[in-house]
Amino acid sequence: MVVEKVLTDEDVNRIFRALADATRRDIVRRTLVAEVSVSQLADSYDMSFAAVQKHVAVLEEARLVTKQPRGRERMVRGEPERIRQAQRLLDQFEQLWRSRIDRLDALLSEQTEHEQTEHEHPEHEQLEREHPENEKG
């Protein structure tokens, strides 16, 4: 049985704060493909080694990557399960958004059908205006 860890609000904040930066998103992409040393990452960007280390630290705090010593190097590896957790959260937002869109579509369809009925049978509207006491509901 697989037990899914629920993300706390703080977890969510850390993940999306970390992913809000283009360099950190690129580091995650690179480290999901292959384990990369911090030195190799630093060579890939136009910034100091210390700046890259700070980016990796933010990602590590969000648990989007892990850093393991290998000799004198610090190897960085992306954490696919953490990305999946973030994706599931986004999927929940998408489901909420789609259900609202579906409800809006249904309301617009009802409105359109009602307007079409009024145009096809204007005598009903005329009768309703002349005799409001006969109106249903």
In short:
The protein is mainly α and 137 residues long.
Radius of gyration, in Å, reads 28 Å
Q: Would you list the SSEs in sequence order as H and E? A: HHEHHEEHH
Net shape = rod-shaped
Helix content: 55-70%
Number of H- or I-type helical stretches: 6
Class from secondary-structure proportions: mainly alpha
User: End-to-end distance, in Å?
Assistant: 52 Å
The count of β-strands is 3
Tell me the strand order in the biggest sheet: 1-3-2
Unreliable stretches, pLDDT < 50, 5 or more residues?
A: none
Percentage of β-strand residues? 5-15%
Please state the average pLDDT score: 86
Oligomeric description of these chains: single chain
Largest sheet: 3 strands, antiparallel
Fold blueprint:
Blueprint lengths: L8 H11 L2 H12 L2 E2 H7 L4 H13 L3 E6 L2 E6 L1 H41 L1 H9 L7
Antiparallel strand pairs: 1-3, 2-3
Helix pairs in contact: 1-4, 2-4, 3-4, 5-6
